[in-house]
Task: structure prediction
Amino acid sequence: VIVASLIEKEASIADERAKVAAVIYNRLKADMTLGIDATVRYAVKKWTGALTTEDLETESPYNTRVVKGLPPTPIANPGVAALEAALEPANVDYLYYVLKDTAGHHFFTASYEEFLKAKENAPEQ
Result:
């Protein structure tokens, strides 16, 4: 349910939910932080606008930018589609994703260099 809540907040495009799930599981398996901005927003109670450096460094068990592993509880009420994606993640090696347009589509990759390049072109959130 915790993973599904992350998917619920991160993926608004239906066919991306399983890919977001895969990234979460792949990062957990690789012992990486999840780096999910939705968890930071939950921690600082900032639902809109750009996150600041201070926000991203907030000490909280919900800040997956700095704390490895899953947050202690769900950050949202996941829907059926997010629950299904959490149970059946895509079979991909992706470790990163970044928003690529204002419609909510993401760019997915296993390459940190590709992620950084895509991040440069990402729209403001």
Notes: The mean pLDDT is 95.
